[in-house]
Amino acid sequence: MSAKFGPAGNSDSFSKVHRSSVEAPGWIAGLGLDCYEYQCGKGVHVGEETARKVGERARQAGISLSLHAPYFINLANPDRSALEKNIGYISAACLTASQMGAGRVVIHSGALMKRSRGEALNIARRSLREVITACDDQGFGSIALCPETMGKINQLGDLDEVLELCTLDKRLIPCIDWGHLYARSLGADDGQEAFSRMLDRVEEVLGTERAAQFHSHFSHIQFTPGGGEKCHRTFADDDGYGPDWTPLAAQVACRGWSPTFICESAGTQAEDALTMKRIYEQYAANP
Known about the structure:
The protein has 287 residues and is an alpha/beta fold. It has helices at residues 12-15, 24-31, 48-61, 80-100, 117-137, 159-166, 178-184, 192-206, 208-211, 245-255, 269-285, and strands at 4-7, 35-39, 64-68, 104-108, 144-148, 175-177, 215-218, 221-224, 228-232, 260-263. Strands 1-10-7-6 form a 4-stranded parallel beta sheet. Strands 2-3-4-5 form a 4-stranded parallel beta sheet. It has a two-stranded antiparallel ribbon with strand order 8-9. The longest helix is centred in the N-terminal third of the chain and has 21 residues, at 80-100.
């Protein structure tokens, strides 16, 4: 088993020559990549016909699919009407994922909303239980939900919080966004020691089997001292911001794990994903 690599949405280079995401799986496979995360961050607006076409092209090209649910999901909002909306957003994302054949749906954990981290986490746990029940009732039990680590300090979603959410059900897989963790730690969560510590923590909480299959986002992220994440950069234009991919690649390779890495560079996500894959393969060949 080995790690998979691919882009979040469509690179600028793809969009210059193709008008439809239906063409994305074949284009991604042609680069030598393995996976594609379809973006529904601004809402689930893709029709069933398009979803099924994307899925068929992905199967033909050997590309595995995931889907990013709307960004505005906030599991830490205690308001009942907000929870119903969140369930609707996630259910819609799961429906489209099922039409595509995507096995994973990434969801945001939410904002603190002036609550303590403990209070927000307890609300998110209750919300996520209801989300899971709703997904089961609608026949989406086979789709893995992936709570994501978040990049702003005032957001719920540090590594331990996301792992705590994932203990609710074995179908939950953490989406570890390494750029977000780097940004919310103001650059501290970077390098071999930090990556080893964080991967050990994932294994400690979830066990080796689940830890080895974690979902992931990676990009270089600029941050501000007071708030964390500011914006995504590219590998070629990062102004010195990290995190550093090489020690993370080495850590994953030496463990023999098989996570999915989705690159979220700003406009060069496919090209940077290929760079990530090539560096990883060097370590995987000599773990």
